[in-house]
Amino acid sequence: MAWKAIDRVNAPAEESPSLSEPLKEKIRGFFDRYPTKRAVLIPALHMIQDDHGYVGWKAMEEVAELLEITPSDVFDTVSFYSHFWTHPKGEKVVMACRSISCDLLGADRVLDECKKVLGIGDHETTPDGKYSLMTEECLAACDHGPCLMINEKMHKCVDPANVRKILEDDANDKLDIPRSNLYDGANRTSA
Amino acid sequence: MAKIILNNQEVETREGIPVLQAALEAGLNVPHYCYHPGLSVVASCRLCLMEMKMPHPKTGELGWAPKLMPSCQTPVRDGMEVRFDSDKVHENQERCMEFFLLNHPLDCPVCDQAGECHLQDYSYHFGKSESRMVDQKHVTPKKDVGPRTLLYSDRCVMCSRCVRFCDEVAGTGELCITNRGSKAEIDAFPGKPLANPMQGNVVDICPVGCLLDKDFLFQQRVWFLKSADSICTGCSTGCSIRIDQNEDHVHRLKPRFNPRVNQWWMCDEGRFGFKYIHDKNRLTRLKLRRGESFESLRWESLAETVRYRFEDVAKKQSDKKIAVVLSPFMACEEAWLLVKTIREVAPEATLVLGPVPTVEQDERFPVGATNGDTKFIIRKEKCPNRNGIELIIKHFGGNTETFDAFVEQAGAGEFAAAWISGGYPTEWVSKDFAKAAGKIPFKVVHDLFGSALTDEATLVIPACSFAERDGTFVNATGVVQPFARAIKPPQGCKRDGQFFYELAELEGLYQSPTVLGMMAAEIDEFKEVYVPPQLPEHQH
After folding, report:
1. The pairing of beta strand A148-150 with beta strand A92-97
2. Which of A16, A171, B269, B349 has CB atoms 3.0–4.6 Å from B322's, for a disulfide?
3. A170 Cα to chain B: minimum distance (Å)
């Protein structure tokens, strides 16, 4: 073509990880919890994202094969939910709220500080692959703005002056209450 | 049957069909994008919203419901009252059109769909001439979604017809909707492109210029095209098609609605299989052998030559046979006229049905469908009229042979003369056949392309392709369907029907309905000809 068009005829050039056999087995372990294999898609995507950090083209294709649906169905679902990543992200994702309450309380200065400390822009990843930065619409803690979320850990009432300290803390994504192991029990049955 | 009140007028319609369908059938121009009668209903475009009378929840009194209802998703019930002509409905249509055009690039001058685009039509009829959008338009990329199809996301109205087609009719599900809300786009998985054998239909059902055919891209402005209603000759399904041509050049084939045969669809094999019509190698000269070489023959002397030569053979070599090989690409009328002529001069002539090109098996859609839920079949017989020719052979009776037996007997030198009609789009003369035909001293070969057969023929008659002919085909299920001519034959050719007409010593111009009438007087099967109903004017 003489003009630019996204190529869907050829397979993507970039490499992406395959599903490992234990991961596949873990996904299969969910089949009997749902009436159809298609219904296992969302849990499967969570498991893949937990394992790979994101859901790549190869993983989408393989999970489609596993669930007996078309790869385009998987692509449809992955892209619908903005919290599924389709490209590699950093080990830790810093989400800065930019909604009205946080904004009034100085979220823009927090975001600027994050950019300065990490040396990256919005929706970018640091060269060492440690941090990704993105903005969120609302983190559901408007009374404690400005908010920052690192992976699943919420930081409330963030002072721009403290941003460097937070980001340099290795345990900044450690949860007070451990996360539910919904997707960890491979062969847990509904009974 | 159900009676509903539509815009204050009583309309008779069918119970249970969508109100939108009833309104379209009643001749109303109700705008719609996502509704297609051949697909599931999603009610996502919101253009066909209507007002409906409903009982008041407290008093039970009938009155116009405050909310607008999607007419595509509301089934007709006897006695219901709806309207499309109120201010509320018009206001909704205007607002919807404004939203549809928010990010539209307005590139109609370079868009193939311009002229048959429902964004243009609806914007003109229901929209506003100005956009209030002051922000930067959201620009989405073009996508190369398949080997034959391009997707211009920026023109898309997200009706999801193409996605539903791939899921429900083709059964292959290559297309999907990615992202969400205002960022939603149609897309295909990289490396799994839109390549099913029915994919051309997504271009037809796309109401705007989003999905375009690479084959037709930038070839013609659609308002220059002239159409003729024809039948696809790709297989024995016999889909109703429309041939779009300009200046005697066929640019594209489109399916026509036919509830008994192809519904709204056609396959790619048929859609793109017409290119041989404009092949430079087609035979275009009527020629007669004189010794080792050929000399041109005037069309005016054809009838006389053929009749005289066949009569001569029939009289002088009564111990040897005469054959007429009828091609399954011939129209019934043509075959009938030919057999009538030859049987007049040589009553013992043997009738043979030419080879029927066949592949292994039928292709059913949706992929994996069984008998009950099949929506479309690409048949294994790759010719349009085997059934019709068989009917004609059966009617004339007398000496008949299968093609294989004919080849065998011809190889043994039992035939003194033969009329061989071809007209196959691909090479069809096998080595055995060519060798056997070499033993027939007098051969008239009527074909589209040159072959070993035409090299050895006594008389070579250039045939016309289906776009240049008119007549009747009988499809695999026995539906007798007429087809019309779209273009003039190439220079040097004469329309097959016309010279067969002259051969049969009938006066005037060949008109297929006239000949069909004569046939129907003799053959019962041709009494009932099926012409599919027209779609309502505003349905698309």
Report:
1. antiparallel
2. B349
3. 34
